[in-house]
Each structure stands twice: as C-alpha cells, then as structure tokens.
C-alpha cells in the first residue's frame, strides 16, 4: 500500500470558503489524488486505486486513461491475484520516460545551475553558468541557460520550468532577495512570456524541503533548515507547507539572537542569526584559530542554532529538524551541541524528543525540488 502521499499542495477547498466543485475541479482533484498515490515510486493496479480513493471503477479508468495518454503515468508490469485465479492486474507507476522539466537553481554564489529532469526530478542533462565575483545573476543569464537546456528537447514534452532561489517569492514574483539583489522582479511572467510554458518560482529552501520529503527521510511534519551563505527554513505541518501571510515564512536568518552585543547586520539590527552562525561568518571566525578554538566556535554555533529552534518546536510540536549545510560547519560537533541544548530547552513529559539531523540528499537538492514544484503545479492547473 502506498505511504505518505503528499497532498498538502492540493487542498480540497480554500479555508473559510464553501463553493460547489465543477466537473473540471472534480476531475483535476481525482487526477492529483491518483498521481499522489503513485508518486514517487509506488505501483498500484486500477482496482487498488479505486479502493484507496473510494472512486468508482469507471472514474478511475477514465482518469487513468487520460494520464496514460498524457505521459504522467505508465503501465508497468502485472501482478497475479492473491487467490491465484482470475486475470492478472496491470500495475501503474509514474512515467519517467516521456515528459521533461527544466529546473534552475539560483541559490549558489557565483553559479547558476540548470538541469533537464524527468517527473521524479532525476537529472538527464546538466549545465552551469559560472559568474565572476563582480557579476550578478540577471534574468538574461537565466533565459540563456533555459534556451541551452531546451535546445534538444521536443517542446511538447516540456511541462514547465522550475526556479529555486533565495528570498521571498509570491505568485512568481521575487519580492525580495538580498542574495540576488532583486526587488519585485516578476520572474514568472518574464519567463512564461519568453518560453510559453508554465513557470514555477519558489524559495530554494522550500524546494530543498520537497526533495527531503519525497526522497529523503522527511515525514509530513518537518522543519527543514539550510545553513550556508545565508540561513533559511521551510516547514511542513501535516504535509502542508507553511508560507506565512506575506509568503516570508522561514526567513529566519535575520532573527536577532544577540540584539545588544552581537555584530552589526546589513538589515539594521545586531546579532542576527546569519551574522553569528552562517557558514561565511563561522569560517571567518575560524581563520587562523587552533583546533580547540575552532571546535569551541562550532560548539557555540550549535547552541545558538538550538536556541533559535526551541520556540518553533514548542509552538508546532515538530519532532524532526533536518539541517542542510557544508560539512565543515554542519558536522557532528555542531549537531551534538545543538541536540544537547535543544533537549535541555524542549524535552518534557508532554513533548517527545525533537531530533536534529543532517540532510543526506546531497548535491542538487534544490534543483530536484524545483522540478517537483513544476509537477505539483501541473496537477493543480491541468
């Protein structure tokens, strides 16, 4: 039986509103329901899908046939009945052979990464544009990379372009990205006009969290934190991403941990998290230091991190914190110090232990998540 199907991005209704669903709405939701039961790597027969969804055999067959024709799913072998008698059932799974996604990651300094992926976000072609220290990422560079990636693709097979970037994103508009130096850039409209395919733009940490959710160890309740040149987070509660009223949920890097004595921050405050424990800040402090001092710096950083996480852990009752970052910073010493401090701050008779662990999904995590975002939008809007 399929487990942990992601349904958070496909709500059955908007909270606070009750509207009558049109036939096209019902069909769209049925498509999403069936696809989510198969994604990413489950196999089910039509009869199993009917039992799991409660849909009639006719409804399942109708939706499945459309998805087979479209290239979203495929027939993938057979299974014999449990009794050993009767017709063998045909298994269905996500089709990774026909449709393609162009995925772009803008989260890394001096580098734009792009890939052509399948519906599981697996890279089939990879390209990069390296930038000099004085070069800023601009829209023209993104257009150039997308043009190169789509050059050898049949346009009918590309279902969308996914972009992951640091900053606050709302409906495809980059409201603020200090890392890119962007403010109110309507990236989705620019790229959709240029390439005439749907474009999905999302925060890079949200993209990375989707990869952890589907292909890592993440469950439906998860706090995902990226600690690198900046610090950002993303949260799932019952498989629903928490984006916030102004789509700035997870922008934790400028929460001040030491407002009186901490270092000045470009945002105007003192002691912001990014100034204290981001990778560049820690590396600068460790330059020329002996091993004992370096270990002390990492230990203190872990404690700072845990102190910042304690309040949302208490508010949301989340027991899984996944931390992504470079190994010279996010290492065993950091994690042990963070875990010890978090245990002291949050453990009680009515709260289970929250575990801080290192992300194991590896390189390309934001690229893969940006591709998954495209798949989710495709299902929502089909």
Automatic annotation (TrEMBL):
Gene3D superfamilies in the record: 3.30.420.40, Winged helix-like DNA-binding domain superfamily/Winged helix DNA-binding domain
Signal sequence range: none
Recorded superkingdom: Bacteria
Entries under Pfam families matching the protein: ROK
Classification via SUPFAM superfamilies: Actin-like ATPase domain, Winged helix' DNA-binding domain
Disordered, as annotated region: 1-23
InterPro entries, A to Z: ATPase_NBD, ROK, WH-like_DNA-bd_sf, WH_DNA-bd_sf
Family: Belongs to the ROK (NagC/XylR) family.
Protein name: ROK family transcriptional regulator
Origin species: Bifidobacterium santillanense
Lineage: Bacteria, Bacillati, Actinomycetota, Actinomycetes, Bifidobacteriales
């Amino acid at each position: 039986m399929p487990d942990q199907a992601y349904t958070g991005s496909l709500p059955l209704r908007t909270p606070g509103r009750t509207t009558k669903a049109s036939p096209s709405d019902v069909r769209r939701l049925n498509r999403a329901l069936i696809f989510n039961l198969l994604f990413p790597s489950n196999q089910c027969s039509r009869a199993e899908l009917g039992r799991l969804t409660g849909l009639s055999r006719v409804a399942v067959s109708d939706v499945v046939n459309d998805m087979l024709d479209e290239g979203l799913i495929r027939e993938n072998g057979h299974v014999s009945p449990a009794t050993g008698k009767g017709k063998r059932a045909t298994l269905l799974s996500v089709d990774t052979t026909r449709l393609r996604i162009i995925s772009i990651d803008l989260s890394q300094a001096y580098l734009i990464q792009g890939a052509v992926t399948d519906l599981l976000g697996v890279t089939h072609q990879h390209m990069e544009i390296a930038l000099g220290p004085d070069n800023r990422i601009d829209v023209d560079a993104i257009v150039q990379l997308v043009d190169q990636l789509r050059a050898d693709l049949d346009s009918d097979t590309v279902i969308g372009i996914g972009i992951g970037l640091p900053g606050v994103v709302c409906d495809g508009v980059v409201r603020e990205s200090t890392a890119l130096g962007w403010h109110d850039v309507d990236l989705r409209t620019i790229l959709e006009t240029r390439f005439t395919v749907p474009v999905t733009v999302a925060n890079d940490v949200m993209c990375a969290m989707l990869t952890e959710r589907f292909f890592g160890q993440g469950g439906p309740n998860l706090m995902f934190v990226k600690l690198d040149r900046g610090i950002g987070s993303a949260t799932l509660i019952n498989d629903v991403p928490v984006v916030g009223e102004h789509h700035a949920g997870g922008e934790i890097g400028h929460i001040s941990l030491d407002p009186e004595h901490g270092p000045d921050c470009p945002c105007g405050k003192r002691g912001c998290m990014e100034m204290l424990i981001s990778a560049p800040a820690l590396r600068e402090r460790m330059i020329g230091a002996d091993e004992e001092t370096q270990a002390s710096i990492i230990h203190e950083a872990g404690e700072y991190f845990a102190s910042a996480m304690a309040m949302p852990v208490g508010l949301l009752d989340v027991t899984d914190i996944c931390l992504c970052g470079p190994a010279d910073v996010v290492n065993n010493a950091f994690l042990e110090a963070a875990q010890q401090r978090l245990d002291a701050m949050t453990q009680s008779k009515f709260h289970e232990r929250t575990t801080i662990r290192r992300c194991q999904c590896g390189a390309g995590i934001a690229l893969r998540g940006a591709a998954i975002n495209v798949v989710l939008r495709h299902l929502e809007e089909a």
